[in-house]
Amino acid sequence: MKTENIQDSPYLEKELRGYLFGTACADALGRPVEHLTLEQIKMKYGEKGILELLPSSPWTDDTQLMLVLARGLLRGAELEVPELMGKIAEELVLWLDEPDLGAGATTRGAALSLKDGIPWSKSGISSKTCGSLMRAGIIGFVYRNNPEKLIKVAQISGRITHSHPVSEAASIAGSYAVKLILDGLEPREMFKLLLEVTQGISQEFTQALENSYYMAYSGIEDEEGLKKLGQGWYADETFALAYFCILRYPNDYKKAVQTAVNITGDSDSVASVAGGILGARLGIEAIPVSWIEALKEKEILEKMVGPLLEKYFQLSEIKSRS
Question: Domains of the chain by range and CATH?
Answer without folding.
Answer: 6-321 (1.10.4080.10)
